[in-house]
Design a protein that fits this description.
Distance between the termini: 26 Å
Number of domains: 1
Strand content: 15-25%
Structural class: alpha/beta
Helix content: 25-40%
Shape: globular
CATH topology: pyruvate-formate lyase- activating enzyme
Radius of gyration: 18 Å
CATH architecture: Alpha-Beta Horseshoe
Order of helices and strands: EHEEHEHEHHEHEHHEHEHEEHEH
Largest sheet: 6 strands, parallel
Strand order of the largest sheet: 5-6-7-8-9-12
Amino acid sequence: MKEIRKFGSLYNTVWGWEGLKCLYPTRLDTYGQWCSHNCSYCYARALLDFRWLWHPNNPKFIDLKEAYRIIAEEIPQNQITRLWWMTDCFQPVERIHRITYNVLKAFNYYKKWYLIVTKSDLIASDDYIKVLDPKLAHIQITITSTDDELAASYEKATPPSKRIQAIEKLASLWFDVQIRLSPYIPPYVEIGKINDIKCDKIIVEFLRVNHRIQKRFKIDYSDYTLKEWWYNHLPLDKKIQLLSKIKKNQISVCEDVDEHYQHRKHHFNYNPDDCCNLSFN
């Protein structure tokens, strides 16, 4: 497969340290260089903002004819494509333009798997439940706080309480759905509320920070003492302590730090060969 890695492209296969750790490195953005959620901690925003490529109020839509061509000709039959790289494919503009809706129909037509990552409850609305193919669709709905008011102070997304309802609705309909605690910001999460969500699967991604994120997202970073590449991270023992409080049948961790990644793979993740722990019918 041809690698497309330039910033601003809506279809990318990610290589390097991230691609080596992720089993699903090919990503398709339906709304690129723009995400109205504009999250303060956002890694994509940190990458694009200083390159003058982050335009939260000026959308760039993928051309549907080009999307259909990519799905038909470039994506192999046995590959899972992640519908999210830089932006959320279910942000509010989707209610008007329905680009993602039509892209999902194309994936279904060509019978190719897709992994949706979103902070929206729109995916659990009746229209989208009808278009989601349970044999092809994998879904991760992101939670960053269990407090609606607090979440609204740093991300302009659907309130977490509604996302939780969406997770439980999809789980009750037997979709392959997971809670995505990403980024996990411990002071913002009541872990008991996470444990109470009626969904057996959870994937955790701890917050990583660089100087751009620290300028925008004001929390206590005193525990982020481990430096690797361009980011600061929580140390392994702190992560283990936090993970021990999560009570779910299937827990996985999406990990960046090399040493921590190996620990998760061999000692923690429910599926050591797939940190996304996807299920296939």
